[in-house]
TrEMBL record:
It holds the Pfam family LRR_8. Residues 329-374 form the LRRCT domain. GO terms for biological process: visual perception. Residues 1-17 form the signal peptide. The keyword Signal applies. This is Nyctalopin. PROSITE patterns: LRR. It comes from Anolis carolinensis (Green anole). The lineage of its organism: Eukaryota, Metazoa, Chordata, Craniata, Vertebrata. GO terms for cellular component: dendrite; postsynapse. Keywords: Leucine-rich repeat, Repeat, Signal.
């Protein structure tokens, strides 16, 4: 009774253990004075956990120290603690039960501890209210299968930039998990049972791994997923029903893989999909109707592929697309994509489509290509230029040679010196006499050689005249 009255008089909260927490701030740390006390011990040069923390601690920041070891009950009993951050330390071993006494903890950050390679099954025991766990960049090779049984409230798990070669089996059956970050690992496959029981998952990031195969119905239990990242992997094909059932998907990223075609079965359930990335693949063919069910699509990325043409039937109906990205493809700007030019001009939703063929329009943007028409109104493809010809010069245009360039300079020089216009015109007419039509190759070559000699003599004579006129 006396202890209770004393606590009331001193406004001290009852604690679970007399040694677990104190009223004073740890040495080398800074403690805020508000009721939700924040303990700031980051960059303090600590090599071990301080022995005592204030009882009312709401958050503790121990980032960027040199802590190596977490003993059992490393933080004592802190009934109000919500956030604990241990990122950027040298932690190599965590004793089972290290976080006992932190019954209210909702967020635990342990990212960027490069020496953590192993976790015990009971590492997170008693953290029944933990919602967010960050284990990114910890050099983990695996996670024990039953490690999350005692953290049923976990919703966000950050495990990117580790060494996983498969999706950890520990996440199976985590029905409350909503966000899973597994990017920048070494995962090679998404198996049919990798994501079982993920009934509330909304965000799944598997980008920048080494995934070469995705099993049939691998995402069948992820029917609430809204954001799915599979970009920058190495798979070249997908099962026909890869995304069946993912009706809430809003963003799907398949960019940076080895896909060669787009099947008309992949996106048949994605009525709410708004953004689709298919960029940086090797796609050269899109099946008719591949996008016909994407009635909510706002942005479609097909840039940096091997597309040469794009039939109008692929985009029927076309009203749904807000932005279409098609640059960095070897486009053949013929009548098959005349519809795309009209679409570009009418809706202004597409730009930067440089032509690779035919040669007559190579280098032009599709918007600058003019499609001729027959008398009946049918489109005519731009011509392929014939760069080989029997004539030594292009038709209707004299060849630019060293001789005529030189004589042009002489003519300008004579004009500057005030010589008569007749002399200049005589020079130009003389030069033009070297161009004959209808001669055979041998004859024209001999005549050109003879005329070059005459021009050299004549130009020399003009030089003497000009010199003497000084």
């Amino acid at each position: 009774m006396f202890v209770i009255i004393l606590n009331v008089l001193l406004c001290i909260r009852p604690v679970h253990s007399v040694w677990a927490c104190v009223r004073s701030c740890p040495t080398s740390c800074v403690c805020t004075q508000e009721r939700s006390c924040s303990i700031l011990c980051d960059r303090a040069g600590l090599t071990q956990i301080p022995r005592e923390f204030p009882c009312e601690a709401h958050s503790i920041n121990l980032d960027k120290n040199s802590i190596k070891f977490l003993a059992e009950r490393a933080f004592g009993t802190l009934p109000s603690l919500k956030l604990l951050s241990l990122s950027h330390n040298n932690i190599s071993f965590i004793t089972p039960g290290a976080f006992k006494g932190l019954a209210s903890l909702t967020e635990l950050k342990m990212a960027h501890n490069e020496y953590i390679r192993y976790l015990h099954t009971r590492t997170f025991t008693s953290l029944k209210k933990l919602v967010r766990l960050d284990l990114a960049d910890c050099n983990l090779f695996n996670i024990p299968d039953r490690i999350f049984i005692e953290v049923p409230a976990l919703r966000e798990l950050f495990c990117f930039q580790n060494n996983f070669r498969r999706i950890p089996g520990a996440i199976r059956g985590m029905e409350n998990l909503t966000h899973l970050y597994l990017e920048k690992n070494k995962i090679e496959a998404v198996a049919y049972n990798s994501l079982l029981g993920m009934a509330r998952l909304k965000y799944l990031n598997l980008q920048d791994n080494k995934i070469n195969v995705i099993h049939d119905r691998a995402f069948q239990d992820c029917q609430k997923v809204e954001y799915l990242y599979l970009n920058d992997n190495v798979f070249s094909d997908l099962p026909e029903n890869s995304f069946d059932g993912l009706r809430r998907l809003k963003m799907l990223n398949l960019g940076g893989n080895l896909l060669r075609n787009v099947s008309n079965t992949w996106f048949r359930d994605q009525f709410e999909l708004e953004v689709l990335y298919l960029d940086r693949n090797r796609i050269s063919y899109i099946e008719e109707g591949a996008f016909e069910n994407l009635t909510s699509l706002v942005s479609l990325h097909l840039n940096s592929n091997n597309l040469t043409t794009l039939p109008f039937s692929v985009f029927q109906p076309v009203y749904f697309i807000g932005r279409l990205y098609l640059f960095r493809n070897p486009w053949e700007c013929d009548c098959r994509i005349e519809w795309l030019k009209e679409w570009m001009e009418n809706y202004r939703l597409v730009r930067d489509i440089p032509c690779a063929a035919p040669s007559s329009v190579a280098g032009l943007d599709l918007t600058d290509v003019v499609f001729e028409r027959t008398d009946e109104g049918f489109c005519l493809d731009p011509e392929e230029l014939n760069v080989t010809t029997d004539s030594p010069f292009p038709t209707g245009e004299p060849q630019s040679t060293t001789e005529n360039k030189f004589n042009s300079l002489i003519s300008k020089f004579l004009l500057q010196k005030g010589l008569s216009e007749e002399v200049v015109n005589t020079t130009e007419s003389f030069i033009n006499t070297t161009l004959f039509d209808g001669l055979t190759n041998d004859a024209s070559f001999g005549l050109r050689e003879y005329n070059i000699k005459l021009m050299c003599s004549f130009n020399f004579w003009l030089f003497i005249v000009v010199y003497e006129s000084k």
